[in-house]
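Pilot study result, target chain (289 residues):
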Amino acid sequence: MLKNYIYLLSIGIIWGSQFIFQEIALTSFSPVWIGVSRALIGALTLILICHTLKLKASSNQWGIFAVIGLLEATIPFVFIPWGQQNLTSSTTAILMGTLPFYTLLLAPFFIKKTTITWSNTLSVIVGFIGLIILFYPELSLSTGELNLLSAAAIIIAAICFAVAILLLNRIENEHPLIIARNVLIAATIQLIAVALITTPFELNDISYTASFSLLYLGIMCAGIVYYLYMMCIKAAGAVFASMTNYIVPAVGVLIGATINNESIQITSWVALIVILSALLINQVLSKNE
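Predicted structure:
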C-alpha cells in the first residue's frame, strides 16, 4: 500500500516540476515542438532503458498502443492549447481536475468486475475540493465569463485521458517499461505528423538552459514519470492513479513560489492539506471495503 502512495507522490512531484522547466524551454522552442521533443526524448529514454535491461515485448499490441497514444497525447495536445487561448490557467486546471470523475464513472465499462467504491468516490470529491481551494484566489478575480467551446475542448481532453488510463488496464502480460515505451513511441509518431501539418519547424537562438529544460521534460516528465505512471496503474488501479491530477497543480504552485521567491498564500497550504487528506481517505476506507 505504501508503495502505491510513493508512486503517486513521485509522479506528482515530477509532473509538478514541469511547469517551471516548460516556461524556460519556451524561450527557445515553440509549444508544438516542445511537445514533440518531449515525447521523442521520453521514448528514446525508455528504449535505452529497455535495451540495457534486455526487456523485450511479449506480444504484438501496437493497435491498442496507437489508440492510447492518440487519447493520451495527440488529441489533448491539440485540444488543450486551443482551449487555453480563451480560458484562465485556473479554469483550465479545474476542468482538467474533472479527470478522476470520468475515470471513476467509466471504469465499470472498461474494466471487468469493477465497481464504484465509496473510498474512491469520496477521495475524488475531496481531492477536487482541494483543487478548487488551490485556485480560489484566481477564480475569485475572474469575470465569470466562460467560453463554452474552449471549456468543451478541455473537458474532451480530460475524457480522452481517462479512457486512455482505463485502456492501459487491458494490456496484459507486458512489463510496465515496455508499455510506457510503446505508448510514447506511438504518441511521438502521431505528434510529429500533427506538428508538421500545423507548425513549421524553426530553430531560433537556443540557450543552454532551454536545451537542458527540454531534456529534463523529455527524460523525467515523459520517460521516467510515464513508467512510474504505468506502475501505479498496474498496482493501484486507474482511479487511484488519476488522482495525480490533484497533486500536480499543488506541487507546481509550491515549486513556482519557491523558485520565484513568491509568498505562498494560505489557500495553497489548505489545498495541499485537503488533497493529502483525500489520499488518506482512500487508504483508510479502502481497507474496510
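One observation from the pilot: The two ends are 15 Å apart (CA to CA). A full batch analysis is planned for the follow-on phase.
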